[in-house]
Amino acid sequence: MIKTFDPLNPAAATIDDQQLAGLVQPTKLHRSLYISDEIFELEMSRIWGEAWIFIGHESQVKNPGDYYTTHINHRVPVILVRDRSGAVNVLHNRCAHKGAKLVDTVEGNARAFRCCYHGWTFNTDGSVLKIPNEAGYEGTGFDIKDPQNNLQTVRSASYRGFVFATLSATIVDLPEWLGGAAEVFDNLCDRAPEGEVEVAGGVLRYEHDCNWKLFLENLNDTMHPMVTHQSVVQAAEDYIATLPPEAVDQRAEAEIIPPFGASYENFEESGITGFAYGHHYDGGKTSIHANYSVNPDYWAAMVASYGEQRTKEILSFNTHNTLYYPSITIKSAVQNVRVVRPIAVDKCIIETWSFRLKGAPEEMLQRTLLYSRLINSSASMVGPDDLEAYSRIQDGLQSTGSEWVEMHRHYNRDEQLADRTVGGGTSDLDMRTQYQAWQAYMGRLAHHLPTGGDHHE
Amino acid sequence: MSNPDIDLRAIEQFLYDEANLLDNPDLDRWIELYSPDGSYWMPVKPDQADPLNHVSIFYDDRVMMEVRRRNFVHPRAASKDHRVRCSHIIGNVRCTGTTAQGDLIVTSNFQCVLYYRREQRVYAGTYEHHLIQEGGRFKIRHKKVLLINCDAPHKSLTIYL
């Protein structure tokens, strides 16, 4: 039994690795995963301090000196910056001198970063540029060439423009970590006639009073829409029923909503696919996004780039939500990305970003933004009903009536393939996939493919 | 700024009446204050130029207003299990111009104290109403609600402000 000790969090020493791993059973989870401050702190170091975390997209820092600031877990501040040579870096946002956060604006352009306290100045690649009144350091043993006097670099890597960083020196490289799930990033980018996407149209930030994992669990939870979103679907259907036949535009607009209450059968058909490291998606052959009409100018631009056969292949790969555990979820079919920022055991912020398909007609971005607003805004008619459920779980799990949360659906029915596990669309395969990764990160075990349930409780 | 054709008192009264339909939520009657091409916009950026090429917190036309008013009273909308209560104060009401369509542009400041899910919050910002004058009555063609903290993370907002 390995005792753990985190000097920043001495309380964490009270749970050992084996006990942590035991909080996840093949078909059930211990309620402390959602309500224990101690476990939250351990998650921040063992999951959010270990996994590849989404930082931003290269298009947010197009020109040398462009920067964007964020956090790797709920507190480690970092800067995404393009340096003078054109390289994109992730730097610790901490002055090498006294530790002040160097940049406290969200985005901008800088020739160099200058600390507001004593004026230490750093190049955009992190190297120290100037220390005022340097003579005072002569003979003190201080060496300006010591790399400790640079802004420290965070290990980072980019996949088709999406920049990830990790605080771990040992986690596998990004392509191996993404594994087969990278095919959804590919699909998102391939949907652009130019093969690239770029951030456009701003960001929504939605404060959630719940544990960050409850948001993740909902992404491929296909048993909730017809219940949680019944009201908005019926509201839209009731309104559509009042429309005269000539109200074509109104009908088309209102019809965006009913697919959110698609039937159990529809979701079952869409399937769920799980990968190592906790990634998963629902959909593939079909999804609730499969029946959107295709803009004819977009179709023409795609065929000009890829030919008709390949265009059909790209547009018929229809996933709903894809999770790259634990920090980013994408909807390739509508070019919408949500980013998870945990704050506390019962609080997280969900950011919604929209992407332009380079080379596609501008209306495509407008459709993406419409979607982001209608579904993901804090004032949408969909998101608040989801959040209501998460918040009630957060409250309900304080109950001592049971220690466990269950996830049995389709257990022992999922099919194990070479690099993935596949199951029916209403399977809890997504839950089991996430929590195998949770168990591996938290219990310091080897990561492996989700087993599909062929071992027994 | 004084224009003898504009009855500022009547405009203020109209804004108060509109706010009352949100304080004591009656979205069926609130929506009737809007023209058939009416819209309600809450930007997410202080200097946001437009609601179509940039994401917004709200941008509802009559279609989405019609869906929203039905959803607002639906017994299975769990987020509406908690009744939302609001108290609006509107001030600094000014007529600041006319639109290309000839609508009156009315700018005002507002504060709204909102109680929802066992928690009280404060929203503040600027309203911009585009009003159509029809025989001594007003219709809203457009209402923009610019929150002073529009670009902050927000909690669920289940009613128009």
Compact summary:
Chain A has 457 residues and is α+β, with helices and mostly antiparallel strands.
Written description of the protein model:
Chain A is an alpha+beta fold. Chain A has two domains: 53-163, Rieske Iron-sulfur Protein; 179-443, Alpha-Beta Complex (Naphthalene 1,2-dioxygenase Alpha Subunit, Chain A, domain 1), CATH 3.90.380.10. Chain A has helices at residues 17-22, 32-35, 37-46, 174-178, 182-190, 212-219, 225-228, 230-242, 248-254, 264-270, 296-306, 308-316, 363-376, 383-396, 429-443, and strands at 24-25, 28-30, 53-57, 66-71, 77-82, 88-92, 107-109, 113-114, 121-122, 128-130, 155-159, 162-166, 197-208, 272-274, 280-284, 318-324, 328-331, 336-344, 347-357, 404-406, 415-416, 421-423. A nine-stranded antiparallel beta sheet of chain A has the order 13-19-18-17-16-15-14-22-21, sandwiched between helices. A four-stranded antiparallel beta sheet of chain A has the order 6-5-4-7, with no helix packed on it. In chain A, strands 1-2-20 form a three-stranded antiparallel beta sheet. In chain A, helix 11 crosses helix 12 (308-316). Chain A is globular. Chain B is α+β, with helices and mostly antiparallel strands and 161 residues long. Chain B has a single domain, classed as Roll (Nuclear Transport Factor 2, Chain: A). Chain B is 20% helix and 43% strand. Chain B has helices at residues 8-23, 27-31, 62-72; strands at 34-43, 56-60, 85-98, 104-116, 119-134, 137-147. In chain B, strands 2-1-6-5-4-3 form a six-stranded mixed beta sheet. The radius of gyration of chain B is 16 Å and the shape is globular. The mean pLDDT of chain B is 95. Classes of the chains: A alpha+beta (457), B alpha+beta (161). The interface between A and B is large, with 43 and 38 residues.
What is the averaged pLDDT score of chain A? 93
Mean pLDDT of chain B: 95
Number of helical segments with 4 or more residues of chain B: 3
Largest sheet of chain A: 9 strands, antiparallel
Instruction: Supply the helix-strand structural class of chain A.
Output: alpha+beta
The shape of chain B, in one word, is: globular
Q: Would you identify the regions of chain B where 5 or more consecutive residues have pLDDT less than 50? A: none
% residues in beta strands of chain B? 35-45%
For the biggest sheet of chain B, the summary is: 6 strands, mixed
**Largest beta sheet: strand ordering of chain B:** 2-1-6-5-4-3
As a percent range, the share of helical residues of chain B equals 10-25%
Taking all Cα atoms into account, the compactness measure Rg of chain A is 23 Å
CATH architecture of chain B: Roll
How far is the first residue's CA from the last residue's CA of chain B? 28 Å
C-alpha Rg of chain B (nearest Å)? 16 Å
CATH superfamily label of the largest domain in chain A: Naphthalene 1,2-dioxygenase Alpha Subunit, Chain A, domain 1
Number of domains of chain B: 1
Looking at how many chains there are and whether they match, the oligomeric state comes to heterodimer
* 3D shape of chain A: globular
- In the CATH hierarchy, what is the class of the largest domain in chain A? Alpha Beta
